[in-house]
Write a structure and sequence with these properties.
The protein is mainly α and 145 residues long. The protein has helices at residues 2-29, 42-92, 119-125. It is flat and about 90 Å long.
Length: 145
C-alpha cells in the first residue's frame, strides 16, 4: 500500500509539473491580448492561425449548408400548408354545378370480419375432448361447479 501511495504521489507531481510547463510555454508564445511574442516560434503561430482559419472556413461552409437545408424545408412546409389550406377552402365552397353536391372523399368503409371461433369450437374441430374432468367447470358468474 505504501508503494502504491508513493507511486501515486510521483504521478501527481509529474502531472503538475507538465501542466505548469505547458502553461509557461503558452504564456511565452501568446500575450493576454493574443499578440505573438518574438520569443515564440513564428512557424507554430502561423500553423495555429492556419488551422484556426481552416476550421472557421469549414464551420462557415457547414453553417451555409445547414441554412440552405433549413430554408428548403421551410419552403416545402409553407407550400404544403398552402395546398392544405386551398383544399380545405375548396371543400367548404359550394359546388358551381346546379343541384350537385361536391364530391367528398370518404374514408373506405370497414370490411366485414366474421366473428372469431370460440375456444370450445376450435378444440372440437381438432378432436380434443372438451369435457375433461380434470379441468374445473366455470358457470356464468365465475364460480366453479
Amino acid at each position: 500500500e505504501k508503494l502504491y501511495l508513493e507511486r501515486l504521489k510521483q504521478i501527481r507531481i509529474q502531472n503538475y509539473n507538465e501542466r505548469r510547463a505547458v502553461k509557461e510555454r503558452i504564456s511565452r508564445v501568446q500575450s493576454p491580448l493574443g499578440v505573438v511574442h518574438s520569443q515564440g516560434s513564428p512557424d507554430l503561430a502561423a500553423a495555429r492561425q492556419n488551422k484556426i482559419d481552416m476550421l472557421r472556413a469549414q464551420a462557415d461552409q457547414r453553417a451555409g449548408l445547414l441554412r440552405g437545408q433549413l430554408e428548403q424545408k421551410r419552403r416545402e412546409a409553407s407550400e404544403l400548408e398552402r395546398v392544405m389550406e386551398e383544399q380545405r377552402l375548396a371543400a367548404k365552397r359550394p359546388s358551381s354545378s346546379e343541384g350537385q353536391s361536391p364530391v367528398l372523399h370518404r374514408p373506405p368503409s370497414p370490411k366485414f370480419h366474421p366473428p372469431h371461433p370460440s375456444m370450445t369450437s376450435a378444440l372440437r374441430a381438432v378432436g380434443a375432448d372438451v369435457h375433461n374432468s380434470d379441468v374445473p367447470q366455470v358457470d356464468r358468474i365465475g364460480l366453479t361447479a
